[in-house]
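Need tokens for this chain, all 385 residues.
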Amino acid sequence: MNMQPKIPFNKPFVAGKELYYIAQAVALGNIAADGYFTKACSKLFEERFGIHSVLMTPSCTASLEMAAILCDLKPGDEVILPSYTFVSTVNAFVRLGAKPIFVDIRSDTMNIDDTLIERAITPRTKAIFPVHYAGVACRMSRIMAIAQRHGLFVVEDAAQGVNAFYEDKALGSIGHMGAYSFHETKNYICGEGGALCINDPQFVERAEIIRDKGTNRKQFFRGLVDKYTWVDIGSSYVPSEISCAFLYAQLELLEEIAARRRASYEFYRRALKALEVEELLKLPRIPEDCRSNYHMFYILLRDRHTRDELLSHLKSQNIHAVFHYIPLHSSPMGQKFGYTENDLPVTNDISGRLLRLPLYYDITEEEQSRVVAGIRMFLEGIRES
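Here are the structure tokens for all 385 residues:
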């Protein structure tokens, strides 16, 4: 039995004044919604990332659902997206009756292959939902050009992309809309939380209504109407002020957190480079026009069997590494939309070989060295056998 301390895959953290700000929120007397800290988080994102309007939400899922409603998606409409993503990306519009059109991914970044998007467009296509995997941007200039040619909306799923950039533009600030996540597994956290980034002003007024249960409550508070009432569809997409108080403390340390994650990412990269040279694994790539937020560090093994065996080996060493998404097109729901497992060959190949390594705010070099040693022991054992 291995008696070494467990290295978790992720560890939520308190970086600064989180508990102090929660106490302040309670003292201010508004812990339900849209208090001081909720507004402060929105303002910080708008000013820091050049986003027209940011609405804080309870989750990235809620943000994506709002975006789908704002795109006015209806039964029979089609939305283009990668299959290699979390289920919230597709649920956001399938729940409205729209159909997913899955496109294969690039083998270098795991992002949607922008060279395949245009051929997937039909007269029923209404939107593209690119997903920025691991905090590395999709090729947004090409995606936006395609969308403009065909009159399509673009919603960036930037759940993993907060404080990452493409051609010096913040992810979430490029498409018509974007969605952020502050789940405890992300770089900046509040347990559960999200934000809807709106870059096209035409969506702002309706977004506020949808967010507030379909009422014009915001207009009432601004004195624009003498009473508020039900005017559109909507739901409770407003987060707790407590969550935003916690998050604001993390956002105050935006660059400090990014720097620590970069250092951990670069440690893995340096330490594992020799194994890549020996062609025992492949390391992640960040294109020159992208500035990552170092959300995760993954390795690609030569096949699924090797990945699964390495996963078991690390577990025996008390190291918690994990694989990632089961491709949506090969899921039971994907099959209901007519897809088969072999429809997207790159997605199928990558998803079976990818392994994510422990990476969190306060991971130590000693812990990372144990992870690297475990990987090296296993892979060098395979080479010699």
